[in-house]
Amino acid sequence: MCLAVPGKILALHEGAQATVDMMGATRNASVRLTPDAAVGDYVLVHAGFAIEVIDAEQARETIEILRDLEELEADELSGAIAGA
Q: Which stretches does DSSP call E strand in the chain?
């Protein structure tokens, strides 16, 4: 399964590179596949590439789902440790 994480472009750099905020983590990503992306846009990032420009609402919804998954995983792990 592949996962693309939404991020907000903070800065664009030479060589089709961008600094992207992905859920609080700042990463570099290539914007070669999204040449119209601009500072302030939200993009889906997969394997170091911005693969699609998305709107802020779609980004918010996806981040909410990812955070819910993190909480579920944490609950399952603490349950597994308690049961060991």
A: 5-13, 17-22, 25-30, 42-46, 49-54
